[in-house]
Amino acid sequence: MEMTVMKEGHPYVDTRGFLQRYSAFVPDDYIILKLEQRHQNGEWVRWNQEMPRGCSAELLAQAEEFSALKKGFRGDLKFYQNPQVLAVAPLLEEQTPGMDMTMQL
Known about the structure:
The protein is of the alpha+beta class and 105 residues long. The protein has a domain at 44-71. The protein is 19% helix and 31% strand. The protein has helices spanning 57-69, 88-94; strands at residues 11-13, 19-21, 31-34, 37-46, 71-79, 84-87. It has a two-stranded antiparallel sheet. Strands 3-6 form a two-stranded antiparallel sheet. The longest helix is centred in the middle third of the chain and has 13 residues, at 57-69. It is globular and about 45 Å long. The protein starts with 10 loop residues before the first strand and ends in an 11-residue tail after the last helix.
């Protein structure tokens, strides 16, 4: 979230390929679902960030770091019912300055 929706005003490319800007981040608009996997038929994959030719080494390094955070699943993935719902706003309130928001769920 710190590298995407929390970057108010920063540009991103939407799913249609158009340049957009992140709107104001409102923590109350977000939740985290803690799911327990029940069944999987498929494979986990890394979703690599695409970058234009000729971009700087610094930008390529940032894209590589971002890609390492993104995991996707190709196939049939099922979860047990009744996921735990975690509101983002209280989690941010608990955060101390400089604390990494990486959660161990």
